[in-house]
Amino acid sequence: MQNESDLVELLLRRAGPREEPPVDAYRQVHAAAMAAFHARTRRRRGRQWLLWAGAAAAAVVVFAIALMFEWTPPVAERSELARIERVVGGAEVARGDAWRALGETGSPLTAADRSDSTLKRK
Which stretches of 1-122 are DSSP H helices? Predict the structure, then answer.
């Protein structure tokens, strides 16, 4: 292995320093390399932009479908929204077609309840 590296060293010493390429040739090769580099990076940027645009479009479609079906996050899907603490006067709520009075303290109110009365927060 040492003999081979000595041989290569000897050949390089005998050859001497390399000649500089002509300036025109150097500029042509450099310009061609830069053009190839820019073309490749331009294609890559185009693909990346297309990927991000596709992801954004998919997010918009998912959001639109969620709005279309009036989707609510799981946190908001509780059956009980509030409990009656106090009733002043008469108040009724309906669940489906059945109306009931809100006279009982601790009665729950759900998202399915409707009321013709104004319910105020204390």
Answer: 2-15, 23-68
Whole-model pTM: value is: 0.32
Q: Which of 100, 57, 45, 107 is nearest to 82 (CA)?
A: 107
> What Cα–Cα distance (Å) separates residue 35 from each residue in 10, 40, 41, 43, 49?
38, 9, 10, 12, 21
The arithmetic mean of pLDDT across residues 58-73, rounded, is 82
What range defines the domain where residue 104 resides?
74-115
Whether residue 9 is contained in a domain is answered as yes
**What DSSP designation does 69 have?**
T
Q: Which residue has the tokens 């050859």?
A: 15
**Residue 83 forms beta bridges with which residues?**
108
Q: Do 53 and 95 fall into the same domain?
A: no
Q: What is the pLDDT of residues 90-112, one digit of tens each?
A: 777 776 677 777 766 567 777 66
Residue found under tokens 């320093």: 17
